Amino acid sequence: MRVLAFLDGTFADPDQAHIRVDDLGLIRGDGIFETILVTNGVPRELDAHLDRFARSAAKLDMAEPDRAAWERVIQQVIEAWPPEEELALKIVLTRGVEGDPEEKPTAFAYGMSIPESTKRARRDGIAVVTLNRGFEADLMERAPWLLLGAKTLSYSVNMSAQREARRRGAEDVIFTSTEGYVLEGPTSNVVLARGKTLYTPPPTNGILPGTTQGDVFRAAERAGWKTEVTQLKADELTEGDALMLASSVRKLTRVHTLDGTALPDSSVAIHAELAEAYDAQYA
Ligand code: PLP
């Protein structure tokens, strides 16, 4: 099932074409997006998503998104969806049509069912490989024009990395910097459990500050865990008690194998405890 609505509140048929071939989002990947998980009619971490959307727009020198209008259209899509069914809700804002003197952005919200592969990953965990992203962990500050830390529509490299993972017999990727620091996944943040502490790398590494990682950390703290945002070396990833990837639609996913090495079974119980603490907030 799918539901499409433009920012002005007009619903449209998702099986019909609506985007012009000269839209800069299409021909240059010049725009931004967010993907929000909706369960029991509630969009998870909506404020954090809309805050990040606004920060991404600012990094791309786009006008500030009209927050009230986005909140309205998100609610419209949710209300058009069966309340008991989960959905992934994507909001997309592009720089609009090339050469348009009015520079009118293209803006829509799009609800989709959760794919079976996502449900399987949530349940069974995934195999992951580490891949070099090819830059140093401090590049974001030195080169803001690279838009590191913005959630842009230019995801070809991220999708290419996931294909490389599949070629290597895995399902997903953890990117590392040239110095060997842990960065993020192509669509997720890294969470490492060691003892009773959860670790994740800092957004200053040029990675997206994750809404799910933030939410998981808050839920874990309430359940008695400590949390730390800190640099991690790639070789530390196999030394913890559980390695997980956090992202809105796949939620907290257990990594059962890293670079071909099976990770300890202790991760099953730790992942179950954290996933439950996270989900309990939305029950
Ligand atoms: N990092 C990247 C590059 C992403 O694309 C995403 C989400 O798609 C994340 C991290 C995780 O962010 P969130 O938990 O807000 O979905």
Q: Number of domains in the coordinates?
A: 2
Bound molecules: pyridoxal-5'-phosphate
Strand content: 25-35%
CATH superfamily of the largest domain: D-amino Acid Aminotransferase, subunit A, domain 2
Which architecture of the largest domain would the CATH scheme give at its second level?
Alpha-Beta Barrel
Structural class: alpha+beta
Q: What is the C-level CATH assignment of the largest domain?
A: Alpha Beta
Strand element count: 14
CATH T-level topology of the largest domain: D-amino Acid Aminotransferase, Chain A, domain 2
**How far is the N terminus from the C terminus?**
23 Å
Which blocks of ≥5 consecutive residues have pLDDT under 50? none
Query: What pattern of helices and strands is seen along the backbone?
Result: EEHEEHHEEHEHHEEEHEEEEH
**Helix content class:** 25-40%
Choose one word for the global shape: globular
Structure annotation, total helices:
8
Give the rounded overall mean pLDDT: 97
Alpha carbon gyration radius: 19 Å
Main sheet specs: 8 strands, mixed
InterPro entries: Aminotrans_IV (IPR001544), Aminotransferase-like (IPR036038), BCAT-like_C (IPR043132), BCAT-like_N (IPR043131), Class-IV_PLP-Dep_Aminotrnsfr (IPR050571)
Protein name: 4-amino-4-deoxychorismate lyase
Keywords: Lyase
Organism: Prauserella rugosa
Model description:
This protein is of the alpha+beta class. It folds into 2 domains: 2-113, D-amino Acid Aminotransferase, Chain A, domain 1, CATH 3.30.470; 119-280, D-amino Acid Aminotransferase, Chain A, domain 2, CATH 3.20.10. It contains 8 helices and 14 strands. α7 (211-222) packs across α8. It holds the Pfam family Aminotran_4. It comes from Prauserella rugosa.
